[in-house]
From TrEMBL:
Belongs to the Cob(I)alamin adenosyltransferase family. This is Corrinoid adenosyltransferase. PANTHER family: CORRINOID ADENOSYLTRANSFERASE (PTHR12213), CORRINOID ADENOSYLTRANSFERASE MMAB (PTHR12213:SF0). InterPro entries: CblAdoTrfase-like, PduO-typ, PduO/GlcC-like. The lineage of its organism: Bacteria, Bacillati, Bacillota, Clostridia, Eubacteriales. It comes from Clostridium thailandense. It catalyses: 2 cob(II)yrinate a,c diamide + reduced [electron-transfer flavoprotein] + 2 ATP = 2 adenosylcob(III)yrinate a,c-diamide + 2 triphosphate + oxidized [electron-transfer flavoprotein] + 3 H(+); 2 cob(II)alamin + reduced [electron-transfer flavoprotein] + 2 ATP = 2 adenosylcob(III)alamin + 2 triphosphate + oxidized [electron-transfer flavoprotein] + 3 H(+). Its EC number is 2.5.1.17.
Length: 337
């Protein structure tokens, strides 16, 4: 059978069942756009290495043939609903599972983060266009609700899959940048964990710093959470003042962890975490924060711990955490009094 039939040479084409219509018919625009999206999804699938996700994408492509066929039969005697409830549920389950694997996303995403996500984003916009055509068709023809629902949900699913690949890429780059950041810091290369009292921060010192910070917090009239960690970011002391926000507990812990793990005050990481910075994407990591209130604690210029403070404004958090660093330095010089 020949590929070319010459039946469309005058600008018409066949719908399901054989009825002919002009190639600019809205139904042709609709199912043709679905075909465009399917092709873009196919390109993305070539690059997907995860078998489970590749199978999900392939299933979507197969269902899109049913979508196209239903659109190509709209308004004919051969029209029948082809999209089932379980097809929609499959997309919703896929979206939910992928959302569990990554942090919530705020703001717009610039397409092109990865090869996979770039092609999926093209497909997503194709699907949105197909949805507009389908919505217009509904004004003139009987169309199943499931067809409209599926097309709408598919754009969300493609978005979720694309963002999953972007997130994986960000995490990979972040891990590489953190490793490079640490390797470039000669203090870290020179420092190894030791158990003598000059290389660790003990609970007595941590408690003393914490109590001093609490006194200072009372002076400025802000209830704070103070966290002291060791050089690995493990908690040595955690104190929550009365009336401080419960959410500040986690933030204070993250500030201490970040300052210890990355060997830098947390506010200095903000510029590095911007799109032009060396640690772009790092603020998507679960335990990392890139705003003020965390400082490393040093002995002889070597990291032995960190302090994280949360509860006030960034400036207030930094004020108390800086004071904690000052108290620690006084302890080293004069001992606990």
């Amino acid at each position: 059978m020949k590929i070319y039939t010459k039946t469309g040479d005058k600008g018409s084409t066949s719908l399901v069942g054989g009825e002919r219509t002009e190639k600019y018919d809205l139904r042709v625009w609709a199912y043709g756009t679905i075909d465009e999206a399917n092709s873009s999804i196919g390109v993305a699938r070539v690059y997907i290495k995860e078998n489970d996700l590749s199978e999900k994408v392939l299933k979507i492509q197969k269902i899109l043939f049913e979508v196209g066929a239903e659109l190509a039969s709209v308004g004919t005697s051969h029209y029948k609903a082809r999209i089932k409830d379980e097809d929609i549920t499959f997309l919703e389950d896929t979206i939910d599972k992928l959302d569990e694997l990554k942090p919530s996303q705020n703001g717009f995403i610039v397409p092109g983060g990865t090869i996979e996500s770039a092609h999926l984003d093209v497909a997503r916009t194709d699907i949105r266009r197909a949805e507009r055509y389908a919505a217009e068709l509904k004004n003139s023809y009987e169309i199943s609700d499931n067809l409209i629902k599926y097309i709408n949900r598919l754009s969300d699913a493609l978005y979720a899959i694309a963002r999953y690949f972007d997130y994986k890429d960000i995490m990979k780059k972040t891990e590489e940048n953190i490793r490079r950041f640490r390797e470039d810091n000669h203090e870290i290369n020179q420092f190894s964990a030791q158990t003598n009292s000059q290389k660790v921060i003990n609970s007595q010192t941590a408690e003393y710093i914490t109590q001093k910070c609490i006194q200072k917090s009372y002076e400025i009239g802000i209830s704070m959470v103070i966290c002291i960690s060791d050089f690995n970011g493990n908690i040595v002391m955690l104190e929550r003042m009365d009336d401080s926000l419960l959410a500040s507990i986690e933030v204070a812990m993250k500030k201490a962890y970040t300052a210890a793990a990355l060997k830098a005050p947390t506010h200095e990481l903000h510029e590095l975490s911007l799109p032009s910075g060396e640690l772009y994407g790092i603020n998507n990591m679960e335990k990392i924060v890139t705003f003020g209130g965390g400082f490393p604690l040093k002995i002889d210029n070597k990291i032995v711990g960190a302090i994280g403070v949360s509860g006030g404004t960034v400036e207030q958090d930094m004020q108390i955490s800086k004071y904690g660093v000052k108290v620690f330095e006084e302890v080293l010089e004069n001992g606990i009094r």
